[in-house]
Write a structure and sequence with these properties.
This protein is an alpha/beta fold. Helices cover about 50% and strands about 20% of the residues. The chain has 10 helices and 10 strands. Helix 6 crosses helix 7.
Length: about 280
């Protein structure tokens, strides 16, 4: 059924009627945006059907959705880039630490000189002569090594050979000291032998004639022996050399004396270990 314009205007005044009338424009329009509405030209009396799409009603809606999508994609891309950046920074930090450690190791290797041990002289301490005279005599007679006897050792053997007690242990020690001292003095009496005496200053001497066996009383004899050996060994060192060459070996069973020697770049061995090192069999 067709409604006349006047009747339609009356219905537009109803609150629940879905159509409203605009007096200034003389146009009818739907109150709630439907998909399809009719607009009637009151002056002409012609009805015109207009189709509205959601994008026509809100042109910014689709654009907002596109922006949201683009924003999510950019955020994901930023997150990936940030993650990759963090990974690269961690890798760079790791490589930097490894390079720094490698440089430190190289510097340490450059600052720590090489130590070459080429035994040429052996220096037994007093206890070696007392406890292993036969072994020292064997090395002296069968090897190329030269026997170095510190004057301090000769002084101690000279003093120990004189008995001051009647105990069997002391008399036995005196006998060994006497045997060692006698053998050494006999070897020094022959010219061009492989035996030399060593002064506290680190000097080698062949002849004991008029030699003073006195020592410095404010130092232990072991320290004086070590001092003489270190000075002798230092005579073969070159200044600014990256290699320490040791041709002097101190023979002692005293562990503390060996440790002191090592701290001063002087090789020190027990007699047993030295025999194994040089492959000397008895």
């Amino acid at each position: 059924m067709l409604l006349i314009v006047s009747d339609l205007k009356i219905l537009c005044d109803l609150a629940d009627f879905p159509v409203s009338y605009d007096v200034t424009k003389g146009m009818f329009s739907v109150k709630v945006g439907p998909i399809e509405t009719e607009s009637v030209n009151a002056n002409v009396g012609e009805s015109v059907v207009e189709k509205h799409t959601p994008s026509d009603q809100d042109p910014n809606l689709h654009q907002d959705e596109v922006l949201d999508i683009e924003s999510d994609e950019e955020q994901n891309e930023f997150r990936l880039l940030r993650s990759e950046r963090n990974r690269l920074e961690a890798e760079l930090h790791k490589q930097t630490l490894q390079l720094s450690k490698h440089k430190q190791q190289q510097q340490q290797q450059q600052t720590i000189p090489r130590h070459e041990i080429s035994p040429k002289y052996i220096v037994p301490d007093t206890n070696c002569f007392l406890s292993h005279l036969e072994v020292i005599q064997h090395i002296y007679s069968t090897s190329f090594l030269q026997l170095i006897v510190p004057l301090i050792v000769l002084q101690e053997l000279q003093h120990l050979r004189k008995p001051i007690s009647k105990s069997q242990k002391h008399l036995s020690s005196c006998t060994r000291a006497k045997d060692a001292y006698t053998w050494l003095m006999e070897e020094f009496s022959f010219p061009k032998k492989k035996i030399l005496a060593l002064t506290i200053e680190g000097n080698l001497i062949e002849n004991l004639y008029r030699q003073d066996f006195s020592t410095v009383r404010n130092k232990r004899n072991d320290d004086l022996i070590l001092q003489a050996c270190v000075r002798l060994n230092g005579k073969w060192q070159k200044p600014d050399s990256d290699c320490i060459r040791s041709c002097v070996v101190l023979l002692t069973s005293d562990r503390n004396l060996r440790l002191k020697a090592v701290t001063q770049n002087l090789p020190a061995k027990s007699l047993k270990n030295f025999l194994n090192l040089m492959n000397i069999s008895l």
